[in-house]
Amino acid sequence: MIRVVALGGALGSALRWAISLLWPSHFPWTTLAINIIGSAALGALLAWISLRPQTHPLLRPFVGTGILGGFTTFSTFTVEARALPAGLAATYVVLTVTGAVTAVVFADRLVRRWQPSP
């Protein structure tokens, strides 16, 4: 199990790093987008798994904890927020938190609408 999570984490972290190289910015748009996209993906994954209990037992640890856990980043978000001027930092924090939570809820509802339980 630990190898599965570690492999997923390495893949997710490498993807986040590659995206950050392709989309540099003075404002942390990349981290904001990554955290919102990753949150949506996690919401969709967990909804899909809850509707399909026969899924492989390693899917959630590999994709959820591993890939998406490595892809999203709370630590970089915190460091970047701290480096911004106070007003901009507050905006960044609110955008990240509300965006991520909204993305999870939206993705969950979307999957449940398109994939009714068997």
UniProtKB/TrEMBL annotation:
UniProt superkingdom? Bacteria
**Keyword Chloroplast recorded:** no
How does this protein lie in the membrane?
A: Multi-pass membrane protein
GO annotation terms (biological process): cellular detoxification of fluoride
One GO molecular function term? metal ion binding
Q: Where in the cell is it found?
A: Cell membrane
Chief site of localization: membrane
Function recorded in the entry: Fluoride-specific ion channel. Important for reducing fluoride concentration in the cell, thus reducing its toxicity.
This protein's name: Fluoride-specific ion channel FluC
| Gene that produces this protein | fluC
